[in-house]
Prior knowledge:
The chain has helices spanning 2-18, 46-55, 59-67, 75-82, 88-106, 110-131, 139-149, 152-156. It is mostly helical. It starts with a helix and ends with a helix.
Amino acid sequence: MRGIQLGFLVAAVLSVAACGETSSGEGTGGTGGTGDQHPVDQCVNDADQAIYDDLGAGAVGNVAAGCANPAAGCGGPLGAILGGDTSESAKMALGDCIAQCVSDETGLSTGCTSCYGMITACSIGSCLQPCLPPNSGSEECAACSTENCGFFDACLGI
C-alpha cells in the first residue's frame, strides 16, 4: 500500500515536472540530498504531527509536487535533472529547494520537509521515464520509486 502511495506522490511530482522540461540551471548542495545515509523519524514530534493533523492526509505530498514546479522557484535545480544531470549534487540541490518550499508553505520542521525534498528529487532523478504520463500512477512507476527511493517512510517516521 505505501509503495502505491509513494508511486502516486512520484506521479504527481513528475506530472508537474514534465511541464518544466525546458527549464535549465544549476543549484547548490545541502541537507536535502539523496545520498546513501538517510535520516529517520524526522516528522515524529508534536509540532509536525499537529501540522499534519491540521492539513489532512496527502496535503504535504501535494505541496511538495507544487514546489517541484519551476514557477515555484525550483526551476534551476529541476532543469538540471531534466537536462540529464542525475548526480547526487543535482538531486541535493533540488531536494533542498523543495524542502525549503514545503517548509515555507506548511510550517513543518526543516528535518521533516527534507524527507519530501529527498523523495521528490530521488523520484525525478531515478524514475522519470517509468513515471511520465501516461504511466503516472502505474505499477511500474510505484515499483521504481519503492526500489530507488524506499527510504521515505523511515525518514518520515511512519
